[in-house]
Design brief:
- The protein is α/β, with parallel strands linked by helices.
- It has one domain (58-393): Metal-dependent hydrolases (TIM Barrel).
- It has 16 helices and 15 strands.
- The chain has helices at 17-22, 68-76, 82-92, 94-98, 100-106, 108-118, 135-151, 167-179, 203-212, 239-255, 269-283, 304-309, 312-320, 334-343, 362-373, 379-393, and strands at residues 2-6, 9-13, 31-32, 37-40, 46-47, 59-64, 122-126, 159-161, 185-189, 191-192, 195-196, 216-219, 265-267, 323-326, 349-350.
- The strands form 5 sheets. The protein has a 6-stranded parallel sheet. Strands 3-4-5 form a 3-stranded antiparallel sheet.
């Protein structure tokens, strides 16, 4: 029976479900972020030691939850935007209501049981796709996420949902989720109403996020069925959605991170396939003027040698160090994890299941976790991927 204590929350495994959820018993569990093992006693002192991936804290970096009251609010709201109406219509559809995932989304106890069955200590709960419903709905959603974290200490790390196109109301909600609710991150979509993240309109939003020092978690649109080719062959859920994430990654690398040096992003689904596309992205990367790299040194496209000798690689790598990639999106396919490990730093990857949409059965999630533990990489890297990176990024 082990424990990790984090400032104002405790994550633990080894007790009964009743004890875990009520917080009636707490024993010691070391937390390993990949660089050290941190055990916190009741006095708050931390000590270091050597721990393997079998005893590390497992954090699911993409885990969806929508409190029932948010469903009710969406149902009773009169929406002016087509995106809000589309969400409402989808929720009211009999086929949506009949889906097991719809029920799982609303039941926190079922989520906890799933986590226990999978061996997941903590889940980053979020639902950024519902930002299309506007700030008022998001306020209720964020209150519900914060409530879940408070009622089940150490089990949930809420990512606030905040729409980025509502001006001062959006900025006020960012302030509220950090300073009143105590949430540590914000989740947004790759675009909203066709407005991309590198648009001038988003500068005040990112300025506020940077000021509040909270990481940004990205998610692709879930209501836009006409995305990049439509629903033929389910391409809206496969290549089209992933293309939108990869496009967002490039926009952030080129048009957001250079201007906001303190921002950090978590991209879903390997960044939409960044491990496979990274060579191409680097080959055609044009650094901004603020990089200090003379234009004459950059000749597009570049070979990898030219990319490195021009000084662009070192600049690009500094931007990449502010990007994290969750490992959801491929159904737990280990060849993609191994490929990612050969391209992306282990210190920038995070285990994720996309519950309850992708990994619904505990045996699949457990197999994925075991697959990561069985990788032929250093133990400290496994620990980072399984949870250490997210614990460190969000200051847990």
């Amino acid at each position: 029976m082990r424990k990790v204590k984090c400032q104002d929350c405790v994550a633990w495994r080894g007790f009964t479900a009743h004890q875990q959820r009520r917080g009636e018993s707490i024993m010691n569990k070391p937390q390993n972020t990949g660089n050290e093992t941190i055990a916190t006693s009741g006095s708050g002192r931390r000590s270091t030691g050597n721990q393997g991936s079998d005893s590390c804290v497992v954090v699911d970096a993409q885990f969806h939850y929508v409190p029932a009251e948010v469903f009710r609010k969406v149902d009773e709201t009169v929406f002016e935007s087509k995106e809000g109406r589309a969400l409402q219509e989808k929720n009211r559809a009999p086929e949506t209501q009949a889906k097991p995932a719809t029920k799982r989304l609303q039941h926190i106890e079922q989520s906890l049981q799933h986590m226990d069955d999978c061996g997941v200590d903590m889940a980053m709960i979020m639902m950024p796709g519902w930002t299309v419903a506007g700030v008022e709905v998001c306020r209720i959603l964020n209150n519900g996420l914060a409530k879940a974290a408070k009622e089940y200490p150490g089990r949930f790390l809420p990512m606030a949902a905040v729409p980025f196109l509502e001006g001062q109301r959006s900025l006020d909600e960012l302030e509220r989720i950090k300073n009143e609710l105590g949430l540590r991150g914000v989740s947004i979509m790759t675009n909203q109403r066709g407005i991309r993240l590198d648009d001038e309109q988003l500068k005040p939003f990112f300025q506020k996020v940077s000021q509040l020092d909270i990481p940004v978690v990205i998610h692709p649109p879930t209501q836009d069925k006409g995305l990049w080719g439509g629903t033929k062959y389910d391409m809206d859920s496969t290549v089209s959605r992933e293309y939108d994430v990869a496009k967002c990654f490039v926009e952030v690398m080129c048009g957001v991170l250079p201007e906001f040096p303190d921002l950090k992003f978590v991209f879903p689904h390997y960044g939409g396939g960044v491990p496979s596309l990274l060579g191409r992205i680097m080959c055609w990367y044009t650094p901004p003027e603020r990089s200090g790299i003379a234009k004459g040194k950059v000749k597009i496209p570049m070979t990898h040698r030219e990319f490195e000798e021009s000084g662009v690689k070192s600049y690009f790598d500094r931007l990449m160090d502010r990007c994290y990639f969750d490992l959801a999106g491929t159904g737990g396919w280990m060849p993609e994890v191994k490929h990612a490990c050969s391209v992306i730093k282990p210190g920038r990857m995070a285990f994720a299941s996309d519950y309850p949409h992708e990994m619904r059965q505990p045996e699949d999630c457990k197999a994925y976790i075991d697959g990561i533990k069985g990788l032929n990489i250093p133990e400290e890297d496994k620990i980072k991927i399984l949870g250490g990176n997210m614990l460190s990024l969000f200051g847990v």
